[in-house]
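Task: complex structure prediction.
Instruction: return structure tokens for all chains below.
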Amino acid sequence: DAKTTQPNSMESNEEEPVHLPCNHSTISGTDYIHWYRQLPSQGPEYVIHGLTSNVNNRMASLAIAEDRKSSTLILHRATLRDAAVYYCILSYNNNDMRFGAGTRLTVKP
Amino acid sequence: EADIYQTPRYLVIGTGKKITLECSQTMGHDKMYWYQQDPGMELHLIHYSYGVNSTEKGDLSSESTVSRIRTEHFPLTLESARPSHTSQYLCASSESPGQGGFYYEQYFGPGTRLTVT
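Output:
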């Protein structure tokens, strides 16, 4: 199974951009890259997903390397409410979503 | 807004009791999932379902069982609770290809935090 590698933790200042990296060197051609986040004491929530092209939505942007071996989740202006664990997941279909340890993002006021 | 509900939110129960954790969704999703998560640790998929009368085991072996008699309902049962079952249990649902809408997004409930004493 293709795996992802993320830093255990990152810190950001409020209202500054945050770039959360994810390495997935063994990604297959059919794997989508998904990002979810889990706020304290809640279930995970979907953030964004992509296959080859960069993606934008109201929550974040996803930048995918040309060789697809890495990706970066971009929060354009971090708020205190963005403090969460962020999971980068590879999956062809969403039966097979393996949530790793993720990156714990701390946002400082 | 996701419409997926789990009850109870918190449960403290003695060893040997039978328990059922409830999960319901009002979105008409075909796929439903159960995950287990210890505090500060990864989520592990323990069961999933493609639709009514479909149940499959996930990555993590679990002594729990599930059923899917109605589309909207996916309860998880432990016949005899043990302290090792103490954990948080998260239910999720998603659409299937062909239902239209956003295929890849899983909607999660708030979770049930189970403590077995």
